[in-house]
Amino acid sequence: xxxxxxxxxxxxxxxxxxxxxxxxxxxxxxxxVQEIFGVNSHIRSVADRIAQSGYVAIAPATFARxxxxxxxxxxxxxxxxxxxxKAAAEAPAVAPGVMLDLQAAIDxxxxxxxxxxxxxxxxxGGLLAWRAACELQGLSASVPYYGGGMTTGDEIARQPHCPxxxxxxxxxxxxxxxxxxxxxxxxxxxxxxxxxxxxxxNCDQRGSYDAAASxxxxxxxxxxxxxxxx
Length: 230
Known about the structure:
By secondary structure, the protein is α/β, with parallel strands linked by helices. Helices cover about 40% and strands about 20% of the residues. The protein has helices at about 40-50, 75-90, 95-115, 125-135, 155, 175-185, 210-230; strands at about 5-10, 15-20, 30-35, 55-60, 115-120, 140-145, 165-170, 190-195. Strands 1-2-4-3-5-6 form a six-stranded mixed beta sheet, with helices on both faces. Helix 1 links the parallel strand 3 (about 30-35) and strand 4. It is globular, with a radius of gyration of 16 Å.
């Protein structure tokens, strides 16, 4: 359904983004932010499915500033490679540029759809979706999935500028339930859901996939986007 296009950030950086468009008039747009594995087949399938629900879906390559063409699987070696790429992308010299790339994707979503824009992301992408809700312009809703780091430290102190719905798993050894509770307390305005599932429960290519949790989170997320985006 989708295809890659080149987008340009405010600082002149050119980067690829996977775009899937609906049939007929779009309801709005949803930016889909990758995990640490790049804009791989799973992220592209998420974008395709969102487009089938009537939205323009845009998945920007948020590793483009550190390495082009990242498309990893879920083996131990892929995990190690992804962790290293995330560390490089989170470096102080690079991280602000990644947010500029997300802003460019948001702007492109508004241009292509002619409507409001939401954002969702998974793992590292969940953290970026949370940061986007707090820092970027033009967002009407944000739905982070198991955003690593968003429930602790300086991240929890951020204040979102749009409605937020967050999904977590109670078996996630990367994100403690105590920190999720702290996030819920700090952000009573956010809708926070916890599932009987592990980290990565939405990805049907991972051993941690949980069909029931994935379906429940998707239903809630799409209803949230229908309410706030269109």
